[in-house]
Design brief:
The chain is of the alpha+beta class. It contains 16 helices and 11 strands.
């Protein structure tokens, strides 16, 4: 179990001592993300993530920041989500102080240099264009718009070309001040480090971070109560589809059952979808699923790339496979296999210092505690056939399925798929 400590200015600190390792991972988890943005500021959280790498405090340039970590053989990265933004470094244990200093400067003293901001604005716009040019990514964005509309969950985290072009420096600074403060920060450390060394160092490093109030998240709207299809015609060699269904929040009692259901149906080459759609019928090279959990809702997605003429058959077969689990449940062997799959994946992740630091911080932000691994293993072991079938019935409702398609299709294909979706 990690040590949990709160600094005098309100930062929550997690330290997981792993004396058998040679590395240490340090993560700064800021409890704000894209779901806190108005429509006009879509992409602000992601824009800020980029700007923190462009110069901060003792590291006034992007090169100085990257060299400070890469120059000692370390790794520095970040990610923006809908609810959390994360900055992290993984270094040899002897360089813990360097990693901490770089991250603390980035989070507390970013420069937001006006010239660098304009350059990064162009970089982000090119990033967005890259998504628009990649149908395997674009189809996921299209599904989100289909499900969530104008809510932040319906937008790409990076924003749009229009919003990123229009966001002003003072607006980024205001959004930064709302989210990047002591009460909104978790610093999570895992690796070859002692808590009695790490905690005072973190308190010193972040002593200047002020306290403030986070703005409220934009509440998730109800999902549409009718099936809906969005089709984007592209002259490409492959059809891409995402089938979306309601999910559950990370507070939901059925969360573990949904996690197991997702793995059973789309979690790798042994999953039902892969074995049936690809191995038995050869309709797709790549098919899988994922479940996104948020504080108040969730979404479950099955995705695939198919030969254009195989789209209708692949979608129909995918829906039939999910329906079969809802109606008949999984087999005993499938349940036993998926339990071992989930437990094995969890235990293997504990061999990586960054995975441990990330798991600890994510749990604390979500649940205000870090459940021991043994508890999670017990929850997985306790799953029954009835639990998975119940979860499948919750997620699979006749009037709440949404389909996004990108590929070489016509209005006639659109009408045919709409009829299929309503069956």
């Amino acid at each position: 179990m990690p040590y949990l400590h709160t600094t005098p200015n309100g930062i929550r600190v997690l330290i997981e001592e792993l004396p058998h390792t040679h590395s240490v991972a340090v993560g700064c988890f800021i409890d704000i993300g894209a779901r806190y943005e108005s429509a006009e500021l879509a992409g602000a959280a992601h824009f800020i993530e980029h700007m923190l790498f462009k110069g901060a405090g003792a590291y006034p340039t992007a090169h100085a920041i990257s060299l400070a970590i890469e120059g000692i053989g370390g790794y520095l990265n970040a990610s923006t989500g809908y609810e959390t933004t994360v900055f992290y470094a993984k270094v040899a244990a002897i360089h813990f102080q360097r990693a901490l200093h770089v991250l603390s400067e980035m989070v507390q003293r970013p420069l937001f240099d006006a010239t660098e901001l304009e350059k990064e604005r162009r970089v982000i716009i090119e990033e967005i264009r890259g998504i628009q040019d990649n149908p395997t990514e674009l189809v996921h964005e299209l599904l989100q718009r289909t499900m969530w509309g104008d809510h932040p969950f319906g937008r790409d985290i990076a924003g749009s070309i229009a919003t990123v072009s229009a966001i002003a420096r003072h607006e980024l600074l205001h959004f930064f001040a709302q989210g990047y403060h002591a009460g909104n920060l978790v610093v999570s450390v895992a690796g070859k480090i002692a808590a009695e060394e790490a905690i005072p160092a973190i308190e010193r490093a972040f002593a200047d971070l002020p306290a403030a109030q986070r703005p409220p998240a934009i509440a998730a709207p109800p999902l549409p109560h009718q099936p809906k299809l969005s089709l984007l015609t592209r002259d490409i060699e492959q059809g891409n589809f995402c089938l979306g269904m309601p999910g559950v929040s990370y507070h939901d009692p059925d969360r573990r059952a949904v996690q197991a259901l997702d793995a059973l149906l789309g979690g790798g080459m042994s999953s039902r979808l892969f074995q049936t759609i690809r191995e038995e019928h050869g309709l797709s090279y790549n098919i899988g699923s994922y479940h996104n959990e948020f504080a108040d809702t969730g979404m479950w997605v099955i995705y695939a790339g198919v030969e254009p003429d195989a789209l209708r058959d692949a979608v129909a077969m995918t829906r039939a496979i999910v329906r079969d689990v809802a109606e008949n449940g999984p087999t005993k062997q499938e349940l036993a296999t998926v339990k071992e799959q989930l437990k094995g994946s969890l235990l293997l992740s504990l061999e990586d210092t960054w995975s441990i630091a990330s798991r600890n911080a994510t749990s604390l932000l979500r649940y205000q505690t870090v459940p021991p691994v043994e508890q999670i293993i017990a929850e997985i072991d306790a799953l029954s056939l009835a639990d998975l079938q119940r979860a499948a019935r919750r997620l699979l409702t006749a009037n709440q399925q949404w389909l996004a398609v990108v590929g070489p299709y016509s209005d006639e294909d659109h009408a045919d798929l709409q009829i299929l979706l309503e069956e």
